[in-house]
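To close the chapter, one final illustration. This time we ask the reader to focus less on the individual chains and more on the assembly as a whole: which components sit near each other, and how the overall shape emerges from the parts.
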Amino acid sequence: MSFLAAHGGAILFYLFAGLALAGAVGVVTWKSPMNGALSLLVTFLAVAALFLLRHAGFVGIVQIFVYGGGIMVLFLFVIMLVNLNRLEASERVWRQTPWALLLSLLFAGVVGVVARANWAGVSTSGSAERLRTFGGEVVGNPQALAGDLFRNYLLPFEIASLFLLVAMIGAVVLGRRE
Amino acid sequence: MSLANVWNVGTEHYLALSLLLFGIGLFGVINRRNLITILMSIELMLNAVNLNLVAFSYQRGDLLGQVFTVFTITVAAGEAAVGLGILLAMFRLRQTTRVDSAQELEG
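The assembled structure is written out below.
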């Protein structure tokens, strides 16, 4: 019991990290896009849980809403619309696969080695307190995030709304029948 | 890595997980020929980046990382909408979503 109490956070991290990796491997290996989309959902939810473990409550919930809700529904809708099951199944292994494996392993290896060499041994303990403090008093994480967002990053926020408008118009124009 | 580091989950654990997720997503983008799977792999890579931002936000006690993650999620939503719109247009044109069917510019 004391083991669980002492290492509960680490156990949860490894559980959700494993789920996220399993879902990611599923996305790139399932032949059927429908199975891939459901694997992707597992990864989205596991990553949301990992956000919560890092005291990012608001971002975790937004991850579930936007990724697990919006983007996932969009993917499933399109997969059903184009009815990929009757399309030719693209074989998993083809002449580009060894190169893809080599390139991604090379990328991960180089980034990993460089990051490991430059890792200054920064303290692993974070400060959750400041993530939910705004104006000197302790409020919730969403409240602190909103205070930061609307006071210091209001212009990027407005630009993001403009971006969404452009993306919406673009999607409508692309989806229109000629 | 000592045993204490295994049970004391820190930023480097998140960085390692994020690197693996990004690598898997990169592999998917290069390897798969189905445009839907390629888009899903791009979402994987964006998720890996968000994981990094949130981990560093926690380590530094700075909300900027989480603010940036909100913007990344916004961009990812727009990217998915436009990408799937392109996919539908391509499917109407060619009756397939395989990216190697588009070779007009190959010469």
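The longest strand of chain A covers residues 133-134. Residues 131-178 of chain A form one domain. With these observations in hand, you are ready for the problems at the end of the chapter.
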